[in-house]
Design goal:
Elements lengths: L5 H4 L8 E7 L5 H14 L4 E5 L12 E5 L14 E5 L9 H17 L4 E5 L10 H12 L3 E5 L6 H10 L3 E5 L10 H15 L4 E6 L4 E3 L8 E6 L5 E11 L4 E6 L9 E9 L6 E3 L2
Parallel strand pairs: 1-5, 1-6, 2-5, 6-7, 9-13
Antiparallel strand pairs: 2-3, 3-4, 8-12, 10-11, 10-13, 11-12, 13-14
Helix pairs in contact: 3-4
């Protein structure tokens, strides 16, 4: 059984409403905390959605995506068993993808609000390093999304550059919480293997399909590369599925994509990522 800090259990879940943003560096137990908070809120009778905002170590969706899950009254528990939507940001880190991250979070939270849930618990990435843009990104998230509360997990003072100015803005309520004693640092190799396992399971039943890219929106532009990960999207920008580029022809304006998506009737756009996935090992790497 996981050891849960007493402070986590003292949070008043009866007052949770709107977006709830969870902040913290990598490997402090944000996902464990999100699950604990979700289950307590659900047990208290709240209609709660969960937004997985970590494209690198996603709990709900696939690497490179942010995913919203709605609750299902007939199937309680975590993760929520209701309908899901995903947005593709193109990589496994917010570095280099900060605008897509903000757009994805806003569109998914708007969707949750339109679904009528009481609150949406939003997990985030562990990027808090100011030199990599973590402070600016986290403050921009709060400014744009205006959560009713920011719940911050930290080992020491690593979140001080974010929390101190945030407390003075009056934008939201800030609650500082301890890290789970069970939290442990994972290596880069462990993180990469975790992503590979998710991608391998997803593409297990994938088949090649040839698409005429001149009949679709290609975002940001049609610069296809071998083994490139891409998203097949509907007209609202939500993910129908992911694909891996096998081959392409600029003269015939076609691209062959390996994907498990069978129904392409709602396909409106291809959003290209800046990461490649080895179709044999499912390991990802940045595209240079």
């Amino acid at each position: 059984m996981e050891e849960i800090p007493a402070q986590w259990r003292r949070i008043d879940v009866g007052g949770l409403e709107g977006p709830i943003l969870i902040l913290g560096a990598s490997d402090v137990g944000k996902s464990t905390f999100a699950r604990t908070l979700y289950l307590r809120a659900e047990a208290a009778g709240k209609s709660v959605a969960y937004l997985d905002g970590d494209p690198g170590q996603a709990t709900l969706g696939l690497p490179g995506t942010l995913t919203l899950a709605l609750p299902d009254r007939e199937r309680p528990g975590f993760p929520p068993a209701g309908k899901r939507w995903s947005r593709f940001i193109g990589g496994t880190s917010p570095v280099g993808h900060m605008l897509p991250v903000l757009v994805a979070l806003k569109s998914l939270l708007d969707l949750a609000a339109s679904a009528g849930v009481t609150a949406t618990i939003c997990d985030t990435t562990g990027l808090v390093d100011a030199k990599q843009g973590g402070v600016v990104l986290k403050l921009a998230k709060v400014d744009l999304l205006r959560p009713t509360a920011v719940l911050a997990l930290q080992r020491g003072t690593e979140l001080k550059p974010i929390l101190e100015p945030l407390k003075r803005t009056g934008w939201t309520r800030v609650v500082e919480l301890p890290v789970s004693p069970a939290a442990r640092q994972r290596t880069r190799a462990e993180r990469r293997r975790y992503r590979a396992a998710k991608l391998a399971a997803y593409f297990e039943s994938a088949q090649p399909v040839v698409l005429r890219w001149n009949e679709l929106a290609v975002l940001p532009f049609p610069l296809f590369r071998s083994h490139q990960l891409l998203a097949l999207e509907n007209k609202s920008g939500f993910v129908l599925g992911l694909g891996i580029v096998r081959s392409f022809s600029r003269t015939e304006k076609t691209v062959e994509v390996l994907t498990p998506v069978k129904d392409l009737g709602k396909l409106s756009a291809l959003r290209l990522g800046d990461m490649a996935v080895d179709p044999h090992t499912s390991l990802d790497r940045p595209l240079n």
